[in-house]
Amino acid sequence: MLFFRPIEIGFSANIKKILLSFFNERSIRRSLQERSQKLFASTANSGKALIVLFALTLVSCVNANAQAVEITTQPKSKLVQINTQANLSVSANVSDGGILLYEWYSNTVESNVGGTLVHTTVDTPDSAFEIPSEQTGDFYYYVVVSSTNENSTQEVYASVTSKVAKVTVTLDEVYTISFFDDKLNKVEEETVLGGTIRPSSILEGTWYALEESEPTEEVDVDENISFFETSGVIGISTEEDLDKIRDNLAGRYILQNSITVNPADDVNGWLPIGSYADGGFKGALNGNGHAIKGLWINRPNEDYIGLFGYIGGGGSILYLGIDTDAAKGGIQGRDYVGAVAGRIRVGTITAVRTGADVRGRSYVGGITGRAAGSLITITISNGDISGTGDYVGGVVGRVDIGTITATYSTGKISGDGDYVGGVVGYSGEATITATYSAGKVGGGGDYVGGVTGYISIGTITASYSRGEISGAGDYVGGIAGYAFLVPVTAVYTQGNVVGNNYVGGVVGSFGIGTLTAAFSYGDILGNYFAGRLVGRNKGSIITASAGLGRVKAQDTLLSWLPWPSWL
Q1: Least-confidence region, from 94-103, 132-141, 210-219, 377-386
Q2: pLDDT at 173
Q3: Is 553 helix (H, G, I), strand (E, B) or coil?
Q4: How far lies 497's CA from each of 176, 488, 492, 558, 563, in Å?
Q5: DSSP tag of 288
Q6: Angle between helices 46-61 and 13-20 (to 10 degrees)
Q7: At what angle do helices 26-40 and 46-61 cross, to 10 degrees?
């Protein structure tokens, strides 16, 4: 039997359409198959059989209709201040590669039927329409997205109509508030005049409500919550505006754009806002997804160093980025040093990213040097952190009765003294959840860990470290150097762990706790009391955990042997 590819013969598109107009029903398709089989039985009818096969191939291979268009992002209602530029946008796609046409309509009522054509755009993946804003009032817009596929044989065009977007043009000032996920990707944006802000769609995950002069409380996203009250909020758009925060430490502020600072003091750099003596910053700063750039501080003999020196009494910083001037040395102080604040007491840091190298003596962290009774969540520290004294951490140098959630550091962490951690140097009654450290962590003294150097009466959950952990002294662990009365759950380490005594792939020394679903993949090197999971265990329960690295220590019989393959 012969097989052909009639589609390659070179018939014109018009001939294909004419033929297909006769052969587009399933019953006719079946009849064609039967006729071709009968015709092939006779050599004399082979030419007729080829014509029938050709028609059958066209029925099978060519679209009868243009495919339906799918709108993936609907145009959203918004507020617009008069005589300012704003856009509506829509995203759509079509599976058959047709050309998309976007036709925007305005309407006097909230309906996507009728209306007046006001704008067209062809084949733009994220088609935008600039909204007229010369007159105040309520206006309604929708878009018809059409697809044209010339290879279709019946319906060449297919279209879909979007939902209606209501646009209110107002004389009042309008704020744009952005919402971010745990990686600081913008997932929602809303324009507001004042009052209560709520997301216009359900967002996944846990979000946080901000109340004036009160710490942030955790709430579920689908509850009726307030994210940021805009009445009485002071807008910040310049370095001068930022500097004036120190004149009203209880005020509530919002960044309207990113700001590049150029401190007037070209020797010491930026003067931190708020001090321990004056009670610090007690207001709220909403970065609105913008960044403060070019920050640098050179005050090696001063304490409480950062963008803010001291935050106390419910002060809050959220949705903010901080980038330092690396050529000027980043941020340097003595004690209590951090990119956001030198010290925080009963405050909140939410959705903040820093790219700052931070240096100091004691209480040094990528976000803050010390935090007490505070909530730090969804933060990223991308700089190298170093201290010549105690309490050095990638995010926080020391935490007392606080919560660290969805937080990580990527830089190199080093301290010459005790209590050095990839995330937290010292943790007292702290809850540490969903954190990790990606860089090397090194300590010159005792208590060094990939997540925390020391933790007592707290929890560590869903956290990991993947850099090399090394300590010149005792109590060195891939997750924690020392842990007491702590459940450690769902953690793992990827780097080698090196120390003197009490060295463990997960915990150096573990007392009266539980270790569950823990894994260690690096090699362990110590003198006495070294282990793949725990260097020394005093009354802790270990379940569903394993280590795959090699162990070398003075009192280890299985020196440098790999983990048995049969376990």
Answers
A1: 210-219
A2: 65
A3: coil
A4: 47, 18, 13, 17, 16
A5: T
A6: 90
A7: 150
Query: Using an 8 Å Cβ cutoff, are 53 and 88 in contact?
Result: no
Q: How far apart are CA 260 and CA 237, in angstroms?
A: 10
Q: Is residue 360 scored above 60 in pLDDT?
A: yes
Asked if 495 and 523 count as a contact pair (C-beta separation under 8 A), the reply is: no
Other CB atoms within 10 A of residue 533 CB: 23
Q: Which residues in 340-368 are b (16+ Cβ under 10 Å) and which e?
A: bbbbbbbbbbbbbbbbbbbbbbbbbbbbb
Closest CA to 439 of 473, 412, 399: 412
Helix and strand numbers (H, E) in the chain are 4, 55
* Half-sphere exposure (Cβ direction) of 144: Cα atoms closer than 13 Å: 17
Strands 331-332, 297-298: pairing kind: parallel
Report the C-alpha gap between 383 and 459 in whole angstroms: 26
Question: Two tokens at 162?
Answer: 């979007």
- How far separated are the first and last CA of the chain, in Å rounded? 60
- Decide the pairing of beta strands 137-148 and 157-161: antiparallel
CB neighbour list of residue 10: distance below 8 Å, 6 or more residues apart: none
Largest CA distance in the chain: 107
Please indicate whether residue 482 or residue 563 has the higher confidence score (pLDDT).
482
* Strands (E) located in 382-486: 385-387, 392-393, 396-400, 403-409, 413-415, 420-421, 424-428, 431-437, 441-443, 448-449, 452-456, 459-465, 469-471, 476-477, 480-484
Q: Is 225 helix (H, G, I), strand (E, B) or coil?
A: coil
Q: How far is CA 500 from the centre of its chain?
A: 38
Q: Is 530 in contact with 537 (CB distance < 8 Å)?
A: no
Residue 200 or residue 137, greater confidence: 137
DSSP H or E run through 35: helix 26-40
Angle at 225 between CA 221 and CA 226, to 5 degrees: 125
